[in-house]
Write a structure and sequence with these properties.
single chain
Length: 91
């Protein structure tokens, strides 16, 4: 069944339904990304990517393949959260 068909059955404008579906989807994705981000932050006892970078540069966290992967993952998650929040604001 399509969104249009469901909207028609529920007597809801398609545009409203699409907006709500997209907003709920993005909100769910933001939450999933935040959970993963907080898990990584907790792993290294950090609050931000710049703090993580500073600890690596200071030698307090050794630079390994895993820490590099986690660093880039934190950067990616942070940027995705910001992007999705910006998209939601355009609705």
């Amino acid at each position: 069944m399509t969104i249009a068909a469901i909207a028609q059955k529920l007597n809801i404008p398609v545009a409203n339904m699409e907006k709500e579906i997209l907003e709920n989807f993005l909100t769910k994705k933001i939450l999933e990304n935040k959970i993963e981000l907080f898990s990584l932050a907790n792993k290294y006892k950090i609050k931000s990517l710049s703090e993580f970078d500073g600890l690596i540069k200071a030698g307090k966290i050794s630079e390994t393949t895993q820490t590099r992967d986690d660093f880039f993952k934190i950067d990616y998650l942070t940027s995705q959260i910001a992007l999705m929040k910006n998209i939601i604001q355009t609705f």
